[in-house]
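For the sake of clarity, the format in which proteins appear in this thesis is described at this point. The record quoted next illustrates the convention:

___
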Amino acid sequence: MNSAPTPDAVHQAASQGGAGGSGAAQRRPLKVAFISPVFLFPADAGGKIRTGNILRGLKESGRFDITLLSPATAGQQREWQGELDRQCDRFVGWAPSAPRPRWQRAPDLLSSLPINVAADRAPAAVEAVEKLLASERFDVVVFDFVHAAVLRPATLQGATVCFTHNVEAEIFERHAKTAGSAPLRWLWGSQAAKMRRFEREALAKFTRVVAVSERDAKKFAADGLTTARAIPTGVDLDFFSWQAPVDGSPVVVFTGSMDWEANVDGIRFYIEDVWPRVRAEVPNAQLRVVGKNPPAALVQRNMPGVSFTGFVDDVRDHARDAQAFVIPLRVGGGTRIKAFEAMAMGLPVVSTTIGIEGLEVDHGTHFLRADGADELVRATLQLLADGALRLKLSRAARELVEDRFGHRVAADVFGGILLEAAEAAA
């Protein structure tokens, strides 16, 4: 698997005549257009957090001049201007589409595009992207998520990069395997086939493709894509500062957007198959589900010891007192940045294989791996009971993310890929 070059190595190559000209020209910041299909604030989902960390790191380096383009209302731009200034040199917004209920999106199932891609091809977005790219020349144009490739103008020339946060087709395929009925399995399978085709065709058009793990990059390479480069998953170590796990009332925490199907599936499974057995052993244990838009069907079940916070301004306030941080996912893709955020804070993590997938961590040293209900019960109870184990995992995990997975490290590798793309296109 090809690894990403370091930023310094690519700068040196560029200054010797690559990426569009003389060494003097290359000492100026690389002009980057960064196109996101979603407004990045509040940073309440893993993709938003990862993209925001990368953009902040790129801007802090001083090597890139960044124009960020995404949907945003005037009110959103005013409210979040300070954070936008940390991520980009200028922001261009387009009018966001009004949210549509699921029944109104049903006709999109007949599209040749996957349903989530079809939803991103809004006229206002297409117009805004075409206008920006026609009015100004950029060294590199980045499309955030493979969905955003649907906004790429057909005539676009020069260096292009797609920042993939998952192998999207794999997520659909996993939903198809775990769906509870034959019609749902057929529906997910149909969408998986569409996404596999779209993903393969769209990514082949980019100069470089950024994957969030070596595993994902190898999956793309197995499909014949030679332009994929992996970056590490980065976490803001200053924001997610470490503290030793607390003793006290037994608390288990999960964080994640509760309008994402993979999180809903994982929490439903944990609540139904794991949690009653944990409570049977520890009757005062509390499970706190932190994340926006939890489904009413889950909230209204009123399971003993289970609470849903909905959207919160700061997840740290709702996670610091936990003895166990659970990631019970059965479907998903990419990497879960929530795992490194928890490890950075010192929270002991128990996760399924899919929940920790793509992250270079070791079972028993940095976290506890638990697949299936029986193993999740045992691992959760073990963390609730064993303070020494909690502290051991906490210290080792924080040391790991400090050494290798700070957000500036990930941004440096990402920056190297941008420079490599500019040189290759030149």
In short: The chain is about 45% helix and 15% strand. The radius of gyration is 22 Å. The CA atoms of residues 10 and 419 lie 6 Å apart. Residues 7-234+407-425 form a domain with the Rossmann fold fold (CATH 3.40.50.2000).
